[in-house]
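## Example pair
The file below holds two records. Each record gives the amino-acid sequence first, followed by its structure token line.
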Amino acid sequence: MRDFGKLNDLSPKNTFFTADPHFFHEGIIGHCARPFANAQEMNEAIIRNWNAVVPAAGTVIVLGDMFWKGDLEACERITRRLKGKKYLVAGNHDKFPRETYLNLGFEDATDYLEFHLEGRLVVCSHYPILEWNGFYRGSWHLHGHVHGKGSHFSKRVLDVGVDCHNFTPLRWREVERKLADGMRLDEETMRAKGNTSRHMPWDFDK
């Protein structure tokens, strides 16, 4: 597991998360009912929205499915237009080797990521995880992949994909606002279900 090292020194003000832009993917427009006529229009809208909120000094963690096919030169043009330092947690459509993503303009790329921000352990993967590292100690889990169509019992899980957030990266402060009361709500759920010790069976009823 690569930890990207300096990510534990992130600025809360300038840290953003996103997932599943699917640049160049015509089919995703119909699959996810995206409001675009074609992939070019979608690409430009996502770039415009990204650059409207991310400063040059920002850091964006992309939780997978950055590109859909697209030749390397086209992928690099997209990446270089996007503001901030970019880190990729690869998804099922991210097929290039790590070195290729570095050459495209990413700071680093990995399959899974954990880091601390303001004392909070944040667990990032492309896919949603049922029970993640630090689950019983208040950690949070961010993911993509399900395009807003998934439903997790935990209130400390957030799909940061573009389909959930107006095709725009999500600020850390917004993540914090959405998940701030999650541990209390999860503890209530665990007590109600009798899950008072670790690794007891979960069911998927709310």
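Second record, same layout:
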Amino acid sequence: MKPLTFARSILWCVALAPMVQGCTTMTDYVPDFLVPQAMPAAGPSDGGDEAGLMVDPAYLLGPEDTVKISVWRDEQLTHEVVVRPDGMISFPLVGDLMVAGRTVEDVRQELVTRLNKFVPNPHVTVMVTKILSNKIYVAGRVARPGEFLVGHYTDVLQALSLAGGLTPFAKENDIKIIRREKGEQKVYPFRYGDIRNGRGLEQNIVLQRGDVVVVP
């Protein structure tokens, strides 16, 4: 092979490598909120890279979520704990702590306050390692009814899409969203036909953890 031709071949390989790598990344795509990443967690860090989930600081913890709690320079106070169905976790010296419905930073600050009785000026880090509580449910005449683990901002149309769409016999203008708030059940109507025709777009609300979309 001539030197000039060989050099051109190398240049082509270098140019195409990022494109090939990019295609592989898209094929293996996973939603950002489920991907472990090196990130600064709530609280001081000792400078090491720790695997946590890149979650919205306003995210509220819920049952089945997993958090890693560590106190700097104290391996005995480093634990990964799962939020129990009652919304609480257990941690050495602290005992039971309600975390459901609270942000990571809020939980960290309370841990600092409680641990301060036993550890002088504790440097506490709290990070989310698994999100399993942010679930919604789609029931009735859809292609794939069931439970879905979703991101923070999933609306009704997106939920119906996750469930495979409506079946031919679904009553598209009688869909309801059932939500529990402070022990009470609320029902929100959803007229799919209106949405499809560009009307009543305000019905396409963002769903909350535990919402049930019912398609009769």
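Notes on the second record: The two ends are 70 Å apart (CA to CA). DSSP finds four helices and twelve strands in the chain.
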